[in-house]
Amino acid sequence: MFRFNHPKEAAKLREKRKSGLLSSFSLSMTDLSKSCENLSTVMLYNPGLEFERQQREELEKLESKRKLIEEMEEKQKSDKAELERMQQEVESQRKETEIVQLQIRKQEESLKRRSFHIESRLKDLLAEKEKFEEERLREQQEIELQKKKQEEERFLLVKEELQRLQELNNNEKAEKIQIFQELDRLKREKDEQYAKLESEKKRLEEQEKEQVTLVAHLEEQLREKQEMIRLLRRGELQRVEEERGDLEVIRESLLRVKEARAEGDDDGEELERAQLQFLEFKRRQLIKLANLEKDLVQQKDLLKKEVEEEQEILEHLKSENEEEFRLLEKNDSVTDVTQVAQDLEKIKLSQYRLQYKERQLQYLLQSHLPTLLEEKQRAFEILDRGPLGLDNTLYQVEKEMEEKEELLAQYQANASQLQRLQATFEFTANIARQEEKVRKKEKEILESREKQQREALEHAVARLERRHSALQRRSTLGLEIEEQRQKLATLNSSSSEQSGLQASLEAEQEALEKDRERLEHEIQQLKQKIHEVDDVQKGHRGTLEGNAASSLSSSAEKSHLVPLMDARVSAYIEEEVQRRLQDLHRAIGSDSSTAAAITKNIEKLHNGTVQRKLKYERMVSRSLGANPDDLKDPIKINIPRYVLCGQGKDEHFEFEVKITVLDETWTVFRRYSRFREMHKTLKLKYAELAALEFPPKKLFGNKDERVIAERRSHLEKYLRDFFSVMLQSATSPLHINKVGLTLSKHTICEFSPFFKKGVFDYSSHGTG
What we know:
Protein name: Kinesin family member 16B
Keywords: Coiled coil
GO molecular function: phosphatidylinositol binding
Number of domains: 4
Helix content: over 70%
Distance between the termini: 114 Å
Coiled coil: 52-238, 289-327, 390-474
Number of helices: 16
Mean pLDDT: 72
Strand content: under 5%
Order of helices and strands: HHHHHHHHHHHHEEEHHHH
Region (Disordered): 488-515
């Protein structure tokens, strides 16, 4: 029997029992089933199961909360990344704004400088014009005065004779003064040319020293990298690669065991075999490391011994050098100086060998040997611990593999860096050889310039001597003075006037004698200085030849390196050589023209006014001596080539624009954007230019050689059409009826700054 304790059912039963209408035997099957269900519900209630259910619900809630938190974290990360991206965009826009502002300021400064230059030129022209007008008025006044003098009555015979003598005396004085001035100018020009030649020689010597220093620096870096690569020998690299392969095999077997264990198949034999294989690998590695340690210790002992020997040799050389230096102070001689220089070179070589050995020893003690000992200690520890668990063994294997890969990557990086350094060294050495050729040519040209200048000075001095002797032969002032004295004695003049005239004539005669003596003395001094300068220049020439021979010998020692330059670099070097030679030839031309000008100035002494007139006429307008047939095609323009300039993001192509206007030719370098800017600007001023076909801007392929070559031909055609339109346009300042034969480079540059040569256009790179 069991007891039912449900309160509602108990109350119902009590009521039915009280009523007596229901007995225990009168219950239906439905009532019995309900009571049984109630009993089963109460009997089956279990607090432990209810607690587990609640716990599961709590865990599900926690899991949902965790997922919600992870989603919120991911959203926060994405928002943070978006914020950083927006900040970077704002920063980049700010930098671009600063760059644009800087460009605007630069353009404003360039415009200010240009306007200031134009104003200064205008002021100079106006001042020159005023000066010429004053001189012209002065000359007219002088002519009028001369006419008035001619119209006046002649003075008495004595005064006329006295005036003639005074004029003759003044002429001789003027010629003497001009000769002195020419002598002073020759001295100044000689000093200036000597200083210029000295500066050129110093520049060549400094360039040679810089090239030698750069090549030596690169060679030292190359040797240091070669030392590091040599210490990490090929056998050790092969050992690292083999160990990495063994570790890869062990790792694969351990991963198979781990996968089998995850699937429920616990293969203990496979795990044990892999662990034993790993321990066997560590034993072999330990043996190799021990052998390698012995080799490194032997190498360390050998390096220490070599360092000590090099130190002893260096000390011995220094002591010998000090003794020779003391002997040199007692008796100076060229052979002793040469011996001391050779000893200093030996000391430098010994110091370099000592530094080389010390760097090797330092790298071995501080880097290579400690790394080897650390790896050996780790192998000992692993062997002492014995077989490890699956995860620990796999961790050790992967760690070893990472270390091997780092070693291999380090070796590859050192090898690639060594290759780059070697290429850089070869390139620099080749550049140095080309520079040596250029310097040799420049030295030859300097010698020819010295010879020409010396000959020009000698000719000028000889001309002055001939002129001075002719002046002495032509001078008859003494006889004229005696005749004048006789005439003065017969004249009916006052005694005071006669005594004054005699005193003035005697003083003038003494002054002329002193001037002759001073002129002869100045000529002799100038001759002596010319000979002294020749001696000094010969000494300098010998020094330069010695330096050139030493630099050529040093470059011959390094000629075993094969040059690795492409066609573009070779072309650039040849172009630079030709450009420098052209500059030197122009300088020679200017020097020869200077010497010719000296001779002409000595021969022509009384044409200062005419020269000033010609100078003013050249500055105001062009000479009309051109051929009228040139007006059929006055402007010739072409684009012969293009060059690559800049690096990285600033890399761009520049087109060489060659302009010929009548007999003037110049070249500018411009990039495509400058062409487009000129077209847009002038198209607004002159409507005729809108009909011209201008090559359009391309979004892609701007650095393709084929596109650039095609653009070069289009731009050349555009420029030719441009000038043909401007020469025929009535509104253009270049109209042929307006400019005519006065068309010049200045006219074209004033028309558009595109054709004006900038500061950097004198090199092969241009201004863009």
